[in-house]
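Reopening this one. Same input as before:
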Amino acid sequence: MRLCATVLLLLFAQGAALAQWTDYGAWTSVSLSQKIARKTVASADFALRWDRDFTRLGSTFLNTEISREVVDDLNISMAFRGGASMTDECQWEPQRRGAITAKYKRGVGENSSVSFRLQGQTGHKGARTPGQGLEFSQAARTKLTYYHKLSKKYRLSVSGEAFFRPLYYTYEWSDIRGRISVRKKVAKRKYLTIGYQVESPIGGPDPWVEHVLICNFGLEKKRRKSDK
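Same output, byte for byte:
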């Protein structure tokens, strides 16, 4: 874990030194999840993302997901995101995204666990031009997260995520993201997560660094019992 943290720190330090511009923003969201079957969970997230040094609402969307544990510790999920994002001309344009994710999570001690996530996604932004089809973009993402239970109410998580974009017949490493957050249990099945995230591209002609504050309120509902 220390080695991963050191590598991430060096990569972000290099990105910050070469960055031509830096942005600060905030990601706020509300999440609702419910167990709908023995090993199946449905969830929805409504998000507002602010950028341009907290002065602009850059995007808003609703993300829906259904996840199922296919074998012990391995979950497969499908998600759809619909919303709108702000262009450089300060106009709203629609955005859509679909994703398939595989996530493996395993305990590594009494109070700690590690998860690895692999995700493929496709989506598009903007309205459809008459007489032309929609242009879809693809990406792949891998994420490694370490969780540590600090107490009955607090949980710490540290993660590193890599993004890959299509290049000819393969995918190239395009961006890297790191996040640290603390989740607090504020009531029964209600959680508040506060965190910090930094993201930067790997190379490219216009290097940048984005710093983001994370705030999420989550509610987990119990599975509804069938009427007898």
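So the earlier flakiness isn't reproducible anymore. For the record, The CA atoms of residues 53 and 203 lie 23 Å apart.
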